[in-house]
């Protein structure tokens, strides 16, 4: 599926950002993708009849991560007159949520052979790194 | 950016759906993409200094569409014990939101040469068609 | 806690609405409240160790209802240049989600003595009725 | 309108929290209320025909604050097996968003006599203080 994230940043009347534009587009995409995948992983865990009791913490973290990534993706999608404190604090929260959820999913992928957790851990790691990179980037 | 939507559907312990799986994955992706692009288009419109007064209706519809697509994408991402009435009613709402926003953006792209509106109209149309197709599909 | 919903509608520069203003404020409040309560009920169900397997459908409907009510509450909070098709279709989806979730929670409150489901059913019924009333109302 | 937030916390099968329960209920309510009011204030600003150009920064901060408060309210509504890092980081982000938006709205209420901004500033301040209090509280 084509992603229009980059096209939207490029056609913005005021495309300057506090962040590097490539890193920004990557982070927006990673946030929306992680929100989708975490919503999906919580639901997959909920259908794991024999293992449900062991997946309660995972479901909890999936939902937190989906909510936090969703809000972060929306905040980052705006370029108009941002507040740097808000951007940075929300990126820090997104980092924390992706880290916690990625760790938990990685464990279930390894120890319980949960394939959906393996996919979800990958999306969490990508989003975690994209947030880290964005926090370290500055626009020219 | 790789999309893990399909991978999540395929690793779900209970992958049966009331909808065809390919059409479902396409619609989930279209919903999340449209939520991002509409958030971005509202912000781009807000930065159009000379034209802002003419873009108020567009901003309004962008926000409605972003909210409705976001909720629809989350509801569709769940396969576990769905309620068909909820799924169908939310898909109908998503169709209406994408249609209204797509029409408005198309007009601004054509009459005011707004490039971000052209990109947004494309995402709205894709999501509108994906919802239409999903409403018409049934799983084998 | 004081609710500022009504105060916001009254201080809006353009307070006319396609709906009756009292019914609108009640429905906005009911949507946000139901989104909170359904999020909370899904989490309470997830902590019901001995009964978790019987609450999977309830958790599923709680999440759908939370997402749909959240989006509906945001769409209704806007008065500026609305699209009636979008408003009505989203209200229909909200009705369907509250009905499905309210029915399920009512059953668990009655048959399994789940107190959080009893509270949640009450919020779902209030929101369902508020949507119904709004769909039947027209502004003077 | 009755708020069921407290009732949901009290009927939770596992009501212990990392936070004091009264402070938690107050903060959840403040987050959902602020999400509603900020959505409404952005829309009211968008309808201020003569002043729209001066309200662009306010609209931007309203939307950030609505998104961040919405996500925070959902994360806080869960008691099951939380991750303290995620909770604290998201509360910090909510504090930052409410502070930025509250400052901007306060200015427009004072200098431009914007009544909706006065109401919104009040909701932002209440949410800011509720986050601060929650970050300082610990459960017995």
Automatic annotation (TrEMBL), chains A, B, C, D:
The keyword Zinc does not apply. The keyword Metal-binding does not apply. Keywords: Plasmid. It comes from the Bacteria. It holds the Pfam family Csp. InterPro entries: Csp_YhjQ (IPR005560), YHJQ-like (IPR044543). PANTHER family: CYTOPLASMIC PROTEIN (PTHR37310:SF1), CYTOPLASMIC PROTEIN-RELATED (PTHR37310). This is Ferredoxin. It comes from Deinococcus aetherius.
